[in-house]
Amino acid sequence: MPSAISQEQIAKLDAYWRAANYLTVGQIYLQDNPLLREPLRPEHIKPRLLGHWGTSPGLSFIYAHLNHLIRQTDANVIYLAGPGHGGPAILANVYLEGTYSEIYPDVSLDAQGMKRLFRQFSTPGGVPSHVSVPTPGSIHEGGELGYVLVHAFGAAFDNPGLVVVAVVGDGEAETGPLEGSWKGVHYLNPVRDGAVLPILHLNGYKISSPTVLGRSTDEEVTSLLLGEGYEPHFVAGQDPSVMHPRFAATLETCWSKIRAIQDDARAKGTARRARWPAIVLKTPKGWTGPKSVDGLPVEGTFRAHQVPLSNVRSNPEHLRLLEQWMKSYRPEELFDEHGRLVQSLAALAPKGDRRMGANPHANGGRLRLSLDLPPFVDYAVPVAQPGSEHRESTRQLGKMLRDVFKRNTTNKNFRLFCPDETNSNRLGDVFEIETRCSMDPVLPTDDHLSPNGRVMEVLSEHNCQGWLEGYTLTGRHGLFASYEAFAMVSASMTVQHAKWLEEGIKLAWRKPIPSLNILLTSTAWRNDHNGFSHQGPGLIDVVLSKKGTVSRIYLPPDANCLLSVADHCLRSCNYVNLIVIDKQPQLQWLDMPAAREHCAKGASIWRWASNEEDSDPDIVLAAAGDIPTLEIVAAAWWLRRHAPQMRVRVVNVVDLMTLFTPDVHPHGMDEGTFVQLFTRDRDVVFAFHGYQRAIHESVHGRPHAERFHVRGFNEEGTTTTPFDMVVRNGISRYHLCIEALRRAAAARAEPLEGARSWPTDALIDQCKAALARHETYVREHFEDMPEVAAWKWTDA
Ligand SMILES: Cc1ncc(C[n+]2csc(CCOP(=O)(O)OP(=O)(O)O)c2C)c(N)n1
Ligand SMILES: [Mg+2]
Fold first, then answer.
1. How many Å lie between the centroid of ligand 1 and the Cα of residue 91?
2. SS3 of 381, please?
3. Which residue spans within 706-793 are E strands per DSSP?
4. Which letter does DSSP use for residue 445 in this model?
């Protein structure tokens, strides 16, 4: 138990905080004269001032006090700065504690290193202004506000020894994701999980407006936090001599509460939802900075948000104010003649891996244990004949995930995240050995619900995805399964996580972390019962825009391909893996050996569905996605029957990135392989799961890319039958046949004669007649025509 803080400790803590503030201001403003040993001159100032002061002193105040707590208690703490724009504060602190120089020896703990620290900040060739990937100790850049608590909870799950401190900006608290993320305590089990300590940083302002919570009464903020399940502790004021002992005491209290909750739950071995402590820290924005500038108040107002003195180079008064401001921290007391933090202050930082910048949990790859995966072939569906039997592909994956849970019970490093659709997505076999997690009362009527579950069902895509991100960033594995359309809710998080990975792989000291695996099921094409709102394949385009170094998109056409793909994704690191496949019963195409081979290649010719043997097709029919595959194979089947002379090749693409040229994506096939699949000049009718332009973008730069005629999701949807969905979007087998017949005819300079001819116009009329039949039938019978609904592949 920590003992009360002494006056002497407070004085040192204050000095440490002043050092951090000094370094923060130095990073924002100075390119030279770091210790102010000469009078400050305009040329010492950076030409472009890019950083955020306002949040920084609060972040450093918390950091310094956490250092104290860690030293007192040996607590295992990581620090997540919600207002990640306070980058210079966190950089200052990891520099002061020594971790920064260990990773970046050039930025040494002396005057030269301090100058480098200042010069690199927010400058070309330097480091970003936020708590970004290069910042030691960070798993949360905080650039896009709103995700600090979801990341914190994800990090705390299955990390019983860890305390995750999450600083929440009061502006950030206005975001939808943050507002929803307080609910993490309903899923945090004090027996097996770590603790999350939220610190709501009520500095009253965001960029230029006051914050909602900043203008709310303490009673209202208290009610909010109580209602969310927390016990709020307020610390308010601006006199450091008062604030230090208060905050230190509050941290001690919160630490003791956390310990008591965990000790009690762990002694009993059973867990109920605890009322976890949370801190509300009310301090002025830009605390200790200039009180006023040009006659306008700055400290304690929105004007402190970024750079309080903006004309330092040209305005002598601003220059004077800056010097005065920096000297108010009394650098001569803080740094020795070499520019090193004086020994008595350096001793305040925790040691080794207990330093928050060095904590291995914040470099999760250091702690990553590979999953023990069952052989995926064990879950194969038998496929005696392609396209002859319907199976729910995701159900096979559910069986495999059940055994992933089973095999990793000791390491406790796998979780499934899903907005309440695990059963609906046919993954319910996991409940044979796992339960849904809830810390709230469990009723006898509940289904597989317990505080010990690792299936995380919360109706918030932000929470699901954010928890998984926090979980993987700290070295553990998981899968987020979502309705396809609603993965767009958290698409921006996918973008931000991909950016994190893009930067992370450039840093040797950041060890590889498990990939972010997103399974999109209940897809656009088979939400025929839910309608237009549920029909949106947009996440493919989102992931497609990310760098090839981290982005992967898989469209397995059946169960065996899904198993192969999922196995690959669960083994991988540092990627965003998007897997798209529907949950409804669907025809199965490939037996396991064929599926393995197909997935290993990423795209291949389906010989059994093709009828050209001399590598000279009249048309190539290609598909990516389960429903497009069905329609393309059915189109090939129809053409083989009605135009047997026509040489049709069927190509299936399971790894979308293989279509890119190798310079764009590492999975991109070389030109020789591409030509082997798609020929050099034959027209390709391509049926695609998502929006057409993705395929055009992917094949850009390939030989005669204009011969790719893509059909995809055209924003046509409603509550209707499965086949009506493909008809409405012009991707039905009959549309594909029409396109193929037209293209094959147009591509021939000379009309074909004799044995190699077929009646293009008459066949097109037959397809149109079939579509007309469909229109009438579906409106009369409310189901698809038997010729479609009961269709199966048969050899010609
Ligand atoms: C999602 C999102 N929207 C808008 C912004 C732009 N932005 C950057 S900082 C900021 C204000 C943040 O206020 P607060 O969370 O209170 O942080 P602090 O006051 O500690 O700076 C805004 C709106 C952002 N970074 N992220
Ligand atoms: Mg604020």
1. 19
2. coil
3. 708-711
4. T
Q: Are 415 and 189 in contact (CB under 8 A)?
A: no
CA distance 4 to 232: 21
Distance between Cα 73 and ligand 2 center (Å): 30
Average pLDDT score over residue span 571-586: 97
Residue 759 CB: number of other CB atoms within 10 A?
A: 12
CA of 171 to the centre of ligand 2 (A): 5
Residues of the chain by 3-state class (helix, strand, coil), percent to 5:
45, 15, 40
Cite the beta strand spans of 67-215 per DSSP E: 76-81, 162-169, 195-202
Report pLDDT for 3.
Answer: 61
Taking the CA of residue 54 as reference, the ligand 1 atom at the shortest distance is 21
Ligand 1 centroid to Cα of residue 739, in Å, is: 51
Terminal-to-terminal C-alpha distance of the chain: 79
| Cα 200 to averaged position of ligand 2 atoms, centre (Å) | 9
Which of ligand 1's atoms lies nearest the C-alpha of 285? 19
Q: What is the mean pLDDT of residues 656-680?
A: 96
**Do the beta carbons of residue 244 and residue 157 sit within 8 Å?**
no
87 alpha-carbon distance from chain centroid: 21
**Residue 167, CB half-sphere, CA atoms under 13 Å: how many?**
33
**What is the SS3 assignment for 616?**
coil
d(CA 332, CA 342): 10
pLDDT band at 750; cut points 50, 70, 90: low
What tokens appear for 340 in the block? Answer: 């090193």
Would you say the pTM of this structure is higher than 0.85? yes
Q: What is the pLDDT of residue 712?
A: 98
Please give the sequence-ordered ranges of beta strands (E in DSSP) within 581-667, or none if there are none: 585-587, 603-605, 619-624, 648-653
Nearest to 138 by CA among 117, 162, 166: 166
What whole-number percentage of the chain has pLDDT above 70? 98
Compute, in angstroms, the gap from residue 58 CA to the centroid of ligand 1.
Answer: 15
**What would the pLDDT profile of 688-711 be if each residue is shown by its tens digit?**
999 999 999 999 999 999 999 999
How many angstroms separate the CA atoms of 406 and 790, rounded? Answer: 38
Of 362, 456, 418, 295, nearest to 78 by C-alpha is 362
Which residues, by Cβ under 5 Å, contact ligand 2, an ion?
169-171, 203
739 lines ligand 1 (CB under 6 A): no
Q: What value does the mean pLDDT take over residues 370-382?
A: 98
Cβ burial of 391 (10 Å; 0-12, 13-18, 19+) is: middle
Q: What does the mean pLDDT of the chain come to? A: 96
Instruction: Give the Cα separation of 33 and 29 in Å (integer).
Output: 11
Query: Token match 């001569």: residue?
Result: 332
Nearest CA owner, ligand 1 atom 12 = 206
Query: How far is it, in rounded angstroms, from Cα 341 to Cα 753?
Result: 89
Residues 737 and 639 sit within 8 Å (Cβ to Cβ): yes
Residue 519's H or E segment, with its range, is: strand 516-521
- Is 336 near ligand 1, meaning CB less than 6 Å away? no
Q: Is 206 in the pocket of ligand 1 (CB under 6 A)?
A: yes
Residue 574 DSSP SS3: coil
pLDDT at position 30 is 98
One-letter amino acid of 617: P
Pocket residue to mutate for ligand 1, from 52, 130, 145, most atoms within 8 A of Cβ: 145
Is residue 286 within 6 Å of ligand 1 at its C-beta? no
Residue 1 has pLDDT above 60, yes or no: no
Number of neighbours of residue 408 by Cβ within 10 angstroms: 20
